[in-house]
Design goal:
The protein is an alpha/beta fold and 353 residues long. It has two domains: 2-62, DNA polymerase, domain 1 (Orthogonal Bundle), CATH 1.10.150.530; 69-346, Aldolase class I (TIM Barrel, Alpha-Beta Barrel). The protein contains twelve helices and twelve strands. The strands form two sheets. Strands 1-2-3-4-7-8-9-10-11-12 form a ten-stranded mixed β-sheet. Helix 1 (13-22) crosses helix 2 (28-38), helix 4 packs across helix 5 and helix 10 (274-284) packs parallel to helix 11. The longest helix is centred in the middle third of the chain and has 19 residues, at 134-152. It is elongated. It starts with 12 loop residues before the first helix and ends in a 7-residue tail after the last helix.
């Protein structure tokens, strides 16, 4: 049965080459198959038209080519598309396609559920079940590109790893997926069009800086005061607090010369005061950065986190700009659909679909 066959997309080009040679085939066959799998994204060995029928049958007997499936999607009045993505073991993650006049951006998941327990995040209600494999990550990008072309008449332009899960806690698979996305043997997208968004895993930020895949780095900050950040994001304390995070970000900039983007949600009664504004200004001054101030999208009617007043967002922006820090206000997208990460998956029994 298919589920008992190894996933051929889990093999590297070198491993495929070794397989073909050991089975009496020319080494170049591996390159042909690899291109079918990662550049042309075929889902069936019979589509590999430059292979003999006997070889295609042989590969079909030995391997499977599992792919994700879009089980369900919602399309917002503002054009945002939210997907419930079915994996090969029938678990569910989410991806989002966000269109603007100049670009379309895919928000991609890296884990099934999440272990970080951020108090304002819908995904935190789903326990972390497993990491996504590189092919499952890449498939989300492929499907987003198809949707971008179908609904908006243009190819996908940008990718952000800001869906379900913490990407830096699935580091090896994330890096392999980025390689497949950016390689000329794969999707061939520019690395500068990719952003990895993290809640802050200092060890992995430094490792990524050393390896320098030339992608952007965004940090979900939400408070520059340790006690408040720990209250809403317990990962802050587990990872050594803001001091360790700042140290890793300074290391990132030293190694890559790439500015950090701080993602910053503003909540009523939590971080909407002058003290919080001053703390963010002081923190952002310590490393070359820009700040995205984001309107919060409540999870449901019982959510204790609520949107801050618009005048508070404007005060944040004014204070940052006066300090020479680029700050932008981002409206929450897809408010008429289940737009917050984890909301759509929460509506499914993720063990059944």
């Amino acid at each position: 049965m298919t589920k008992n066959k190894p996933n051929i997309r889990s093999f590297s080009l070198e491993q495929l080459t070794d397989f073909f040679v050991k089975n009496g085939e020319k080494a170049y066959r591996a390159k042909q198959v690899y291109e079918w799998l990662w550049k042309k994204n075929v889902r069936d060995f019979d589509e590999m038209s430059n292979l003999s029928k006997d070889l295609r049958n042989f590969l079909s007997e030995k391997f499977s080519i599992p792919h994700i499936q879009i089980k369900y999607f919602q399309r917002s009045n503002d054009g945002t598309i939210k997907n419930a993505v079915g994996l090969k073991d029938n678990l569910i993650v989410e991806s989002v396609l966000i269109p603007t006049p100049k670009r379309t951006t895919a928000c991609v998941s890296s884990q099934v559920g999440c272990s970080l327990d951020c108090k304002f995040c819908a995904t935190a209600r789903l326990k972390r079940m497993r990491n996504l494999t590189p092919d499952e990550i890449v498939d989300q990008v492929i499907e987003a590109d198809k949707q971008s072309r179908e609904f908006y008449g243009k190819p996908l332009t940008n990718i952000v790893f800001m869906g379900m899960g913490e990407p830096l806690l699935n580091y090896e698979n994330l890096m392999q997926a980025i390689d497949k996305i950016t390689s000329n043997k794969g999707l061939g997208m520019a690395a500068r069009r990719i952003t990895v968004s993290t809640a802050g895993i200092p060890k992995r930020i430094k490792q990524m800086a050393d390896e320098n895949p030339r992608v952007g780095l965004a940090v979900s900050l939400h408070s520059a005061i340790d006690s408040i950040r720990t209250q809403i994001m317990p990962v802050n304390k587990r990872q050594g607090g803001l001091h360790e995070l700042l140290s890793s970000l300074q290391y990132w900039y030293q190694k890559t010369k790439s500015k950090i983007t701080f993602e910053y949600l503003i909540f009523k009664g939590i971080n909407d005061d002058e003290k919080s504004i001053k703390a963010l200004v002081n923190f952002a001054r310590k490393v070359p950065s820009k700040v995205n101030l984001i309107e919060y999208n409540p999870i449901d009617d019982t959510d204790r986190f609520q949107q801050a007043d618009e005048k508070v967002l404007e005060q944040y922006k004014k204070s940052l700009n006066q300090a020479g820090i680029i700050a932008t206000l981002r409206n929450s997208r897809g408010q008429d659909i289940d737009a917050a990460c984890g909301q759509l998956a929460n509506k499914f029994d993720i063990n059944i679909l």
